[in-house]
């Protein structure tokens, strides 16, 4: 039995591209979170398609996104994915392995917090 929808929320992503379809700016808004056209330099969006049993994804970054920022962005994203996986599944043992890998990644990328 499913719960009836009581409310809908809209998240908007606006991407400004150049003549070569390369992102130059990214802004996002989320009315429920009181976010209005906040700037972003990169985004990773993953959606689960239940019909095809596959992940649909959009990965974008602007020309302003530095390699150093990208390393930190991926590290933080991997850590939050571990948190989300634990929350969704309760699989503590594998989540600890994921977090261990995240620290290895940070060490290899030389982005370990001082």
How would the global form be characterised?
globular
Taking the alpha carbons of the first and last residues, their distance comes to 50 Å
How does the major sheet shape up?
3 strands, antiparallel
Q: Which value, in Å, is the CA radius of gyration?
A: 17 Å
Can you count the helices? 2
Strand content: 25-35%
Spatially, the strands of the biggest sheet line up as 1-2-3
Instruction: Give unreliable regions as ranges.
Output: none
- Compressed to H and E, one letter per element, the order equals EEEEEHH
Number of strands: 5
User: Averaged pLDDT, please?
Assistant: 96
- Helical residue percent band: 25-40%
Summing up helix and strand content along with how strands pair, one would put the structural category as alpha+beta
Q: What is the number of independent domains?
A: 2
Organism: Wandonia haliotis
Protein name: Gliding motility protein GldC
InterPro entries: Motility-assoc_prot_GldC
Pfam families: GldC-like (PF19937)
